[in-house]
Amino acid sequence: MSGRVALITGGQQGIGLGIASALVEAGFDIAIAAEAAPDAPAVTAALEKLGGNARYFRHDMRDLDRIPALVDDVEARMGPVTTLVSNAGVGAPVRGDMLDLKPENLDFVLSVNLRGAFFLAQETARRMAAREAQTPRSIIFITSVSADMVSVERAEYCISKAGAAMMAQLFAARLAADGISVFDVRPGIIETGMTAGVKDKYTARIKAGLVPAARWGTPADIGAAVLPLAEGRFAFATGTVIAADGGLSIARL
Predict the structure, then answer these.
(1) Which member of 36, 44, 125, 212 lies 3.0 to 4.6 Å from 40 by CB, making a disulfide possible if both were Cys?
(2) Which domains can be identified in the chain, with CATH numbers?
């Protein structure tokens, strides 16, 4: 083992896999945590792609009671976690008028994107802070441009990402003196399974000028943004928000 262990939630697909690929290529050992069964096609394909330095740990982000056991498991098999990439998340179960938003849909999104993410970060941070640093340590929250860009048809998602952005600031302030850097990476319109259902809509809008970079983002774009943060190259910039969105969130006339 390399001594650099990155725990990536939702690392078996999409943005998470893009991040895992960038980190494993740089020599990190990768622990993927997700709800899918270990023999699910996405999991087996991800492990084949990542190679022998990756392990899979089944975990439901809503199961707060099992968080210590998850981290125990990772540490027993791979060593202490030096980087947590809090990436797992769910979108709005139903896109539509926010005036019709159902409580159960709000609760579901917040249970994964906020509650699950917070308490896993809390457990990981406690353990990081209790150990003497042997390598750069970081917690990286993958939030979204939706943290401050409004989409009224998916209010619960925007609310969850705004909360996650504040969560990143809170952990950054709390952990700075412990030498643990915390960042908020905000992807824009990224081509993944989550956005497949709106591909035609956003392709047209991108062609019309919505994204200054004039293209969809890719999981590899997000991996490239996360890698130097995990490596400790921006440690003193803790608390920074990185807009990985091709210029989408730039205020323009």
Answers:
(1) 36
(2) 5-244 (3.40.50.720)
Using the Cα atoms of residue 23, residue 25, residue 29 and residue 35 in order, give the sign of their dihedral.
positive
Residue 186: HSE in the Cβ half-sphere, 13 Å Cα cutoff: 27
Give one word for 246, left, alpha or beta, with left for phi > 0 and alpha for psi -120 to 50: left
Is 140 in a helix, a strand, or coil?
A: strand
Express each pLDDT in 158-195 by its tens digit: 999 999 999 999 999 999 999 999 999 999 999 998 78
Strand, helix or coil for residue 137: strand
pLDDT tens readout for residues 31-69: 999 999 999 999 999 999 999 999 999 999 999 999 999
User: What tokens does 186 get?
Assistant: 């905000």
Query: In this structure, are residues 34 and 10 in contact, taking their beta carbons and an 8 Å threshold?
Result: yes
CA gap 156, 101 in Å, rounded: 8
